[in-house]
Specification:
29% strand; putative n-type atp pyrophosphatase, domain 2; 4-stranded antiparallel β-sheet; 33% helix; alpha/beta; 226 residues; 5-stranded parallel β-sheet; 2 domains; Rossmann fold
């Protein structure tokens, strides 16, 4: 089956892509670039790095800008998926949804209207297990956004490893924090993954944070040999 992947460049959409590619043919990436940093639907930190990730994967990418207005942004999403269907003859759409019923229901409805299958390979998986799978498979993941107590500036730019996973699980125990950021607490950017033909090297970056909210912005990056 020919599949398009809703792709933000974060850990969940990238892992979902890998799972899908093990069984089906991934033909393109579909990326929504939201002008609203508080979009209900779309990841925003370092979304421009998704172009480098697409190049590293060797996959074409459909980019569509959206104002990110609640519900109205779904029209833009449907147009982007329809474009992928026309250009790449996709038969289904892959998402990285894990817990968000809000996102999953809306994407499923759009796919149904377009006559496409909707695949959520990470849906309801244990979040700690998903993080461990990323490390086990050799994904290089950096925290690019934090948006909840008790996360703060010192978390920004950290790389995902077993120690970081333990810390996130402890925060789940103490504060109810979603360890994989399914409540919007954490955003990530993938710098390397098994299917990447090259990896991303950060040349310059910037941290902006205030209290328990902040972003790690990659200002300049390039692809290098692995």
């Amino acid at each position: 089956m020919r599949l398009g992947v809703l792709f933000s460049g974060g850990k969940d959409s990238t892992l979902a892509l890998h799972y899908a590619a093990e069984k089906e043919e991934v033909t393109c990436l579909i990326t929504l670039v939201s002008q609203n940093k508080e979009s209900y639907m779309f990841h925003t930190p370092n979304i421009d790095i998704s172009a480098l990730e697409a190049e590293a994967l060797g996959l074409p990418q459909i980019n569509k800008t959206t104002q990110g207005e609640k519900e109205k942004e779904l029209v833009d999403l449907q147009e982007a998926i329809a474009e992928a269907k026309e250009k790449f003859q996709i038969e289904g759409v892959v998402t990285g949804a894990v817990e968000s019923v809000y996102q999953a229901e809306r994407i499923q409805r759009i796919c149904w209207e377009l006559g496409l299958w909707c695949f959520n390979p990470l849906w309801k998986h244990d979040q700690k297990a998903l993080l461990e799978e990323l490390v086990k498979r050799g994904f290089e993941v950096v925290i690019s956004g934090v948006f909840a107590y008790p996360l703060d500036e010192k978390w920004l730019g950290k790389r995902l490893d077993t120690q970081l996973i333990s810390q996130l699980v402890e925060l789940q125990r103490q504060y109810g924090l979603s360890p994989s950021g399914e409540g919007g607490e954490i955003e990530t950017t993938v710098l390397d993954a098994p299917l990447f033909k090259q990896k991303i090297e950060i040349l310059s970056s910037n941290v902006e944070a205030r209290g328990n909210s902040g972003t790690f912005t990659i200002e300049e990056a390039r692809l290098v040999n692995k």
